[in-house]
Automatic annotation (TrEMBL), chain A:
Name used for this protein in its record: RNA polymerase sigma-70 factor (ECF subfamily)
A Pfam cross-reference name: Sigma70_r2
Stretches assigned to the RNA polymerase sigma-70 region domain: 41-101
Gene Ontology biological-process annotations: DNA-templated transcription initiation
Gene Ontology MF terms in the entry: DNA binding; sigma factor activity
Organism name: Streptomyces fulvorobeus
UniProtKB/TrEMBL annotation, chain B:
The keyword rRNA-binding is assigned to this record: no
Superkingdom to which the source organism belongs: Bacteria
Annotated protein name in UniProt: Regulator of SigK
Organism: Streptomyces fulvorobeus
One annotated GO biological process: regulation of translation
Domain named Anti-sigma-K factor RskA N-terminal: residues: 6-42
Domain Anti-sigma K factor RskA C-terminal: 105-242
Keywords, sorted A to Z: Cell membrane, Membrane, Transcription, Transcription regulation, Transmembrane, Transmembrane helix
Subcellular location(s) per record: Cell membrane; Membrane
The keyword Chloroplast is annotated on this UniProt entry: no
Sequence intervals crossing the membrane: 99-117
MF-aspect GO terms: sigma factor antagonist activity
Pfam families (alphabetical): RskA_C (PF10099), RskA_N (PF22618)
Amino acid sequence: MREAVHISGAPSPGPDLQELLVLVARGDQNAFAKVYDAVCGPVLGLVRSVLRDPAQSEEVAQEVLVEVWRTAPRFQPARGSAMNWVLTLAHHRAVDRVRSAEAASAREHKAALLDRTPDFDEVSEQVETRLEREQVRRCLRTLSELQRQSVTLAYYRGLTYREVSELLSVPLGTIKTRLRDGLIRMRDCLGVNA
Amino acid sequence: MSTAELHTLTGAYALHALPDDERQEFERHLGMCEACSQEVRELSATAARLGLAVSRRPGPALRDRVLSEITTVRQEPPSHGALSRSTGTGNRARRRTSFVLAACIAASAAFGGVAVWQNQVAQDARQEANRADERSEQLAQVLAAPDARTTSGTLKGGARGTVVVSRGENRAVFLTSGMEQPPAGKVYQLWFDEGGTMRSAGLMDPSAASEAVLMDGEVAGASGMGITVEPVGGSEQPTSAPLALMSLPA
């Protein structure tokens, strides 16, 4: 394994974003515009990785960003960074959408789910994003094949652990364990503190 | 599911990979397991890093749509410190949390007098209540009732009290914050005032400084409510001067 390079302990928009959210919580729309600029890329990217469909992804991203505005007064820094909070919201919304009955019937079949990896290769104009992407990709390579597949299918495709288990034909208990130890290994590799 | 099994769900939980029923079971467990909570925080932060890695900048149209939409969307009230307070263990703590939540929400609604987010507030209270027991469900129903009316007053000692009555539900909820602990061996008891006759409406949790209580029994013909200090276990009839007497809203 190559030496871990920690560019920064946490996603770099960290402290500024937190302060901005405090202003947003008081109804400051200019501060919200800045929050928007900091989080719109990660939000859309994550939603799109789960939903695939570009139009539907924009729609859900919009819902998420408006929810950030609406629920900013509820944000509690003690429970995690602002970017975490926003991305958790985004992931939940995207996953809820993909699991809704309508989406479930149109769910891609096994081969498609397994073939597609997240769009790591897309060219990004932002240095920060490129570094982040590089670091995550490098750390994913340190996982076992089963850990990597379980974690990416659950996170980037929004599958439940039961669906992951069926898809990979691996027992439920094993998937639960791989999701946990895979993420723990990612945590250590990325140097995440929380 | 055993505790050891539950503990291995931290990863699946952080990835939002649990079906709803298992997620709820795990969240109950989280309330009791500090080690699990810490691990969930770390693994959620790790998952967020996976999210950052697939960042993809949207076109300018989305920015315009979002910035214009927020000018018409009302923000939620802040969650008070009481929300993150964790006391006691297990179901009891959870139940209390949702009482406190309902209280905060209803108190803001009552004091702020803002009707616009009443619906949203009611929904939140109901959602919270769904996770707790039937009693708190009833409590939320009173708070959320379309005919809910409130009266507020200051109690002896300076604490603030609000009573929410729904004639349709025929029930009342008493909300308070900042009450001192009752003296040792005493409890606060609530009463309905029926033309001067006091009918017990239950005891308040002595350990809570801020809470929402579904008053026992129907409102029926009561025109007011009161609160007194009584020996532990409560009394048939008030044995001390009331800390507060409030008329119920019509």
